[in-house]
Amino acid sequence: MKRAGYLLYGIACYFVFFGTFLYAVGFVEAAVVPRTVDAGGPVSEPGAALFVNVLLLSLFAVQHSVMARKGFKERWTRIVPEPIERSTYVLAASLCLIALFWLWHPIPAVLWDAQQPALRALLTGVSLLGWGIVLLSTFLINHFDLFGLRQVYLAARGQRAQAHQFRTPLLYKLVRHPIYLGFIIAFWATPTMTVGHLLFAAVTLGYILVAIQFEERDLVREYGERYTAYKQQVRGLLPIPKSS
């Protein structure tokens, strides 16, 4: 019964994540969903909106980074069973994003607005390509492990998830962090850039640059010289070959 409970919990957390991911696309693209980065949320003075929005982004950043660290996981799994640790992490991240979507204060002042239909379509297409890169990159490394389903599935079968071997499939041969690159493309390629959208894109970019430092420190500890050599061969975010 416990194993079945883990599996059901993991599946539920995954569906919360996937719904949140789809909403995030609409939120950033300012389309379909009722509350977006540019409209639908509470209206307030720019200073108040800035404070609330930065606070919401910081909440997600702290949760996303702290809960991913090995030291936190070691303590956390004394409370949360190991098979559902990743699912709980995914659920917590999703809840932080849901709060952000619900409480985000749009700052609709326009900084640039592409008027030509072809240019608008091009920028929207590039942004959607960024989302595609994010999703593809998760499958290249193991989508179901990344979001906790593999762990609860194996636990339901009485097995324990083993650590992955280090590998660099497809996009990972071009950049070390294609998931982050996809998010950057998705957030910045917009036909209409408002102050609120710029704030969202700029703060998330800052978070990404900091998060990479923490993640790579952990990866070097886990994979040692193999990851160090990979860093020397492949750039972090720019798909430009390094000179030999």
Verbal overview:
This protein is an all-alpha fold. The protein has one domain. It contains 10 helices and 2 strands. Strands 1-2 form a two-stranded antiparallel ribbon. Helix 1 (2-29) packs parallel to helix 4 (85-103) and helix 1 packs antiparallel against helix 7 (149-156). The protein starts with a helix and ends in an 11-residue tail after the last helix. The mean pLDDT is 95.
**Mean pLDDT across all amino acids:** 95
Shape: globular
User: What order do the helices and strands follow?
Assistant: HHHHEHHHHEHH
Instruction: Please give the count of helices.
Output: 10
Proportion of beta-strand residues:
under 5%
- Note the gap between the termini: 56 Å
Structural descriptors:
244 residues; mainly alpha; two-stranded antiparallel sheet; 3% strand
